């Protein structure tokens, strides 16, 4: 009986380790990146377009998998109309006409793909490049902190007067529903616009919390992969891969949750104007917002933010690696159980942020895993971070620090078809240490 009990305990211990998972970074008993993501989309052949989408969609419309669609110019799904896209459907954005798809306020998109049959938005060029076409814009009637309503008219040149109302966003309904985006890929978007900047892979403006947004991948975008203006957005299992702009950018009073999501940056494609994995801000200019309204607040949990450098120290010396997270004045961030690996530094506060208890209680980092970063948390243009070290290094925050390569940190990030960015089992062995560069956990 004793031998049986001992054997049973050993068996349960082994099984427990096989099925265990790290609580930090992206999580899942299985690698949820399998099947629906694509990390080498330039090798994919989606065929030739068989149908054209152009102008205004003014009645309920269904796009089918048997067709491949060419998105031509600025396409709007108008108020009260639903655009349904079948799993496996391919929509190609036209390069010459700066194609984009906008779901107007009050309209819906039902793009509900499947793990083995995702919906794909991509470029129509044979040799695809970041910024080949515009991107996907969803507009809702949830609140922002802007004065009046906002507009995305600047993203659309040569609009006729009848289309201008379809570019507006904002309202008083945080529970609004703009539809479903699930198992969707957006590739090679972010077209550059004169005097405006870049389109984004996915722009969510005043989108409400009844909208379902999960398992969305934006890859090789010339602008921001995911940009959120206002609204109450819940993003789950979002992937940004080698974006030139920011991976996730939150602004204009949004009250959002970003969970179980991944950003992979490359120092060789990043924009020179300071692109980050995560940027949290409440405005671009103070005069454009109403301070009686809510400032931006983001809850970010189980994120994995990775800089994919072959030689991190060399890339840092060349100025190619920046911070992973940037927090601006009057914005709140509650980040927990996340991994930040290979940045310079991990986190940067805008210089306008005064380091005091009131502000630090609005910017939280708990249960974090900081790995192989040149410094952890700093204020912009200030190399003395002693106050921040003392604050976030308190054992009550349960943050840990490591110095190991990405290949040692993650299960299998070098697999080109099925990378696994989950933290290695039992990677974190040491107790939580005081926040300081010399206190490094054991990774052996």
Automatic annotation (TrEMBL):
It comes from the Bacteria. This is Right handed beta helix region.
């Amino acid at each position: 009986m004793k031998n049986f009990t001992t054997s049973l305990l050993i068996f349960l211990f082994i099984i427990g380790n096989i099925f265990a998972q790290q609580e930090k970074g992206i999580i899942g008993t299985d690698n949820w990146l399998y099947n629906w993501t694509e990390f080498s989309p330039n090798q994919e052949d989606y065929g030739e377009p068989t149908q054209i989408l152009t102008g205004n969609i003014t009645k309920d419309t269904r796009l089918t998998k048997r067709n491949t669609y060419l998105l031509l110019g600025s396409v709007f799904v108008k108020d009260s109309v639903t655009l349904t896209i079948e799993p496996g459907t391919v929509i190609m954005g036209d390069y010459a006409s700066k194609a984009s798809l906008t779901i107007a306020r009050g309209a819906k998109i039902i793009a509900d793909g499947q793990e083995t049959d995702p919906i794909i938005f991509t470029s129509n060029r044979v040799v695809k490049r970041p910024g080949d076409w515009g991107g996907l814009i969803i507009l809702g009637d949830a609140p922002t902190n802007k004065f009046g309503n906002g507009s995305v008219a600047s993203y659309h040149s040569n609009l006729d007067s009848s289309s201008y109302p379809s570019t507006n966003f904002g309202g008083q309904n945080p529970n609004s529903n703009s539809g479903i985006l699930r198992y969707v890929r957006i590739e090679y978007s972010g077209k550059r616009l004169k005097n405006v900047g870049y389109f984004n892979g996915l722009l969510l403006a005043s989108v409400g919390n009844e909208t379902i947004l999960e398992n969305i991948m934006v890859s090789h975008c010339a602008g921001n992969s995911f940009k959120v203006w206002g609204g109450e957005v819940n993003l789950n299992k979002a992937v940004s891969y080698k974006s030139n702009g920011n991976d996730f950018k939150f602004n204009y009073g949004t009250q959002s949750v970003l969970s179980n999501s991944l950003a992979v940056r490359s120092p060789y494609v990043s924009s020179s104007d300071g692109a980050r994995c995560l940027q949290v801000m409440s405005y671009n200019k103070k005069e454009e917002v109403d301070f009686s309204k809510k400032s931006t607040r983001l809850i970010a949990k189980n994120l994995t933010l990775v800089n994919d450098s072959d030689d991190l120290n060399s890339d840092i010396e060349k100025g190619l690696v920046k911070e992973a997270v940037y927090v601006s004045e009057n914005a709140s961030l509650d980040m927990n159980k996340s991994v930040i690996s290979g940045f310079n530094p991990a986190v940067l506060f805008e210089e306008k942020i005064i380091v005091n208890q009131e502000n630090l209680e609005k910017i939280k980092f708990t249960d974090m895993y900081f790995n192989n970063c040149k410094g952890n948390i700093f204020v912009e243009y200030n190399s003395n971070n002693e106050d921040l070290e003392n604050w976030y290094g308190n054992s009550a925050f349960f943050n840990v620090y490591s110095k190991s390569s990405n290949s040692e940190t993650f299960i299998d990030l070098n697999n080109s078809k099925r990378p696994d960015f989950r933290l290695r089992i039992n990677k974190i062995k040491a107790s939580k240490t005081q926040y300081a560069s010399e206190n490094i956990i054991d990774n052996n």
